[in-house]
Amino acid sequence: MRLIDLSSPVDSSFVEPDPVIHDILTPRQGAVHMSAEMREHFGIDFDPDELPDGEFLSLDRISLTTHTGTHVDAPSHYGSKAGYGSGVPRHIDEMPLDWFHRPGMVLDLGDAPTGVIGADRLEKEFARIGRRPEPLDIVLLRTGADARVGDPSYFTDFAGLDGPATHLLLDLGVRVIGTDAFSLDAPFGDIIARYRATGDREVLWPAHFAGRRREYCQIERLARLDQLPAPYGFTVSCFPVKITGAGAGWARAVAHVEE
């Protein structure tokens, strides 16, 4: 079994719309912190200098959104109401785990320019690889956008699904759709330009808003999809972190390839 890391990092040195703040306590600072915490919370006095080398454990404090790095969007991210089930969309901690460990399929869409990818382009790719997704397969879109991770162009130059393309995958029973781009939708600038030109609200974040009518999850900001050896025949694990009441959770996405 070979494991392929499909995740992009959380890196405070990267350009991000919402900057990541990463503060690190060294093992020495961790010792002082531990001593103060023991005194405050448990009434225990302990001199950190009694520790070997005067050090305890390092500690990281990170401020970031749940949409930083590779993450899974929950149905509650798409809106406060759902047009299915109880009408209340589920948070990330409520999603079934078996959605996130499934056979995978990668679609090569690297020729798509900045903007939207339509259903016809997906059908062309299905024909090329000779297969369509099975229900609950995890479909990954390889656009090549991950080559720009850490650069401002990562957030402006990529391709995302339009409404019909998203619904095509959902019609086939797919419940988790992943992309190596910043968003499963087209870039903000492209969306707003098309909306202003047409006045059509259907062009406003159609991939995300499809989730208001049909329950599904997205994996955004994947990486290294070009390392997958074939369009299918591998398993994807992308379990989201269990954050109560959250609209997304970070994930370490990995492909399992039999050898």
Automatic annotation (TrEMBL):
Q: Where are the transmembrane segments?
A: none
Q: Which Gene3D superfamilies match?
A: Putative cyclase (3.50.30.50)
State any single GO MF term: arylformamidase activity
User: What are the BP-aspect GO terms?
Assistant: L-tryptophan catabolic process to kynurenine
SUPFAM superfamilies named in the record: Putative cyclase (SSF102198)
- InterPro entries from the xrefs? KFase/CYL, KFase_sf
Q: Which Pfam families match?
A: Cyclase (PF04199)
Please name the PANTHER family in this protein's record.
Answer: CYCLASE-LIKE PROTEIN 2
Q: What is this protein called?
A: Cyclase family protein
